[in-house]
Amino acid sequence: MAPIRLAVLAAELGREVEGDGDVEIHGVAELASADPFELSFVAGQRFAQELARSHAGAVIAPPGLDAGGRPVIRSPNPRLDFARAVRRLRPASRPRPGVHESAWVDPAAEVHPDATVGPGCAVGARTRVGPRSVLHANVTLYEDVGIGVDCCIHSGCVLRERTVLGDRVVLQPGVVLGGAGFGYERDEQGRWEAVPQVGRLVVEDDVEIGANTTIDRGSLGATRIAEGSKLDNLVQVGHNCQ
């Protein structure tokens, strides 16, 4: 990471600096471990003692909080501005566009030239992968799956047939989307018979789904995850949920 002047970073965040804006920031860290070349943040007054003990070279802090003489970027929401600073200082790496030689893509699938299909991926018939979307290693897309723009699908995810993702969707490793819902009826002999699950799953824009989460397809209609939803790791969403 290239060093950045604190004043430059503050300007990018739309905030003001108190103190020496020429201080160079080389990294980010929590208060307890930050060194004189790193930026940290303080959410509020209850962290004042921890701040006083910290060696951080600069902090993002709310108005009025004593920063102990060190340079400070004043913010009404330090946690949010620190998150944006981290994104600026440590941008996520992005693999090059293209289809890895070890991936399999059905001839009837459509992969945008700006998309990335990583090692060991499988992309089924009539599946579409949109611009700048990334499939990391060993992602499996069944047939008729739709992937929007700027999606990030991490390793080991499985999307079954007719699952649709909107734009800017993030799937953490091991997510399984569109599996069969849990539905059975007893037959004439009292044995359990599976009810076919022939619906689909729709995940709208700006959704993030945590690692090893599973979401079932609808039994007839659609299971739907609404725009902007955030699901943690190990969540299970049953069929037909909205």
Describe what this molecule looks like in 3D.
The protein has helices at 6-13, 48-53, 78-89, and strands at residues 4-5, 16-18, 24-25, 27-28, 38-41, 58-61, 72-74, 98-99, 104-105, 110-111, 116-117, 122-123, 128-129, 134-135, 140-141, 146-147, 152-153, 158-159, 164-165, 170-171, 176-179, 184-186, 192-194, 200-203, 208-209, 214-216, 222-225, 230-231, 236-237. The chain has three helices and 29 strands. The two termini are 42 Å apart. It has a seven-stranded parallel β-sheet, with no helix packed on it. A seven-stranded parallel β-sheet has the order 9-12-15-18-21-26-29, with no helix packed on it. A five-stranded mixed β-sheet has the order 2-7-6-5-4, covered by helices on one side. It is elongated and about 80 Å long. It is mainly beta. Helices cover 11% and strands 30% of the residues. Helix 2 links the parallel strand 5 (38-41) and strand 6 (58-61).
Helix content: 10-25%
Number of strands: 29
Mean pLDDT: 96
Strand order of the largest sheet: 8-11-14-17-20-25-28
The biggest beta sheet is recorded as: 7 strands, parallel
Q: Which descriptor suits the 3D outline? A: elongated
Instruction: Tell me the structural class.
Output: mainly beta
Distance between the termini: 42 Å
Please compute the radius of gyration using only Cα atoms: 23 Å
User: Residue ranges: pLDDT <50 for 5 or more in a row?
Assistant: none
Note the beta-strand portion: 25-35%
The total of helices stands at 3
Descriptive keywords:
single chain; about 240 residues; mainly beta; 7-stranded parallel sheet; 3 helices; about 30% strand; elongated
